[in-house]
Amino acid sequence: MKTQNKQLIFSAAALILVAAISRLIPHPPNFAPIASLAIFGGTVITNKKYALILPLGTLLLSDILFELFTSTPGFYDISQTFVYGAFILITFLATQIKKVNTKNILFACVWSGVIFFILSNFGMWLTGIYYPKTFNGLMACYAAAIPFYKNELFGNMLLNTFMSNFFFTALLFGAYAIIKKTVFSANTQVA
Description:
Oligomer: single chain
Distance between the termini: 11 Å
Strand content: under 5%
Helix content: over 70%
Order of helices and strands: HHHHHHH
Radius of gyration: 18 Å
Number of helices: 7
Number of strands: 0
Number of domains: 1
């Protein structure tokens, strides 16, 4: 039993690492696995500390790699703390999902995209660099963020962000289910 748990934990960590590395491969804007990592880590990893550390660690690692090895800045300004904060909140909320089923995970894909949009753009507004720190400035920031998504793979924020979450979440949970089935059937056959 302990060997199975170790194998499953290792498999979950490996899936998260592979997803983080995939962030470095050229892809359409915002079509990235980080929200899916937070949902997956939050629901699969029972230790909440590790559930939080793994997705944030992979985000930090990929940002460092962006900074060191690509022309894309890994670290850009103080508003990035809101990006990290969004993933902390998403991971925490995912740990609160009591029943991991398709409906709840699909719903998590939606609310995680909304949380990311709201918090990341709030952080951009809060810097005061582009928008005045007024309610109208905040609304202008959110309004300006919507067309930002028009050149993405699926044509808009709704499709690109949510489709990304659906795609990577299905990939992570599907691969994990296959690994889990393989680990349990292999250990049953040996015994």
